[in-house]
Amino acid sequence: MVNNDLPVKSVPELIAYMKANPNKLSFGSHGTGTSVHVSGELFKSMTGTSMTHVPYKGRQFAIPDLVGGSIQLMFDNMPSALPMARDGKIRALAQTTAKRSPAAPDVPTMAEFVPGFEATTWFAMFAPANVPKPIIDKLNAEVVRVFHLPEVQDRLKTLGLDPVLSTPEELARYQAVEITKWAKVVKDSGAKAE
Question: What does the alpha-carbon distance between residue 125 and residue 39 come to, in Å, rounded to a whole number?
Answer without folding.
Answer: 23
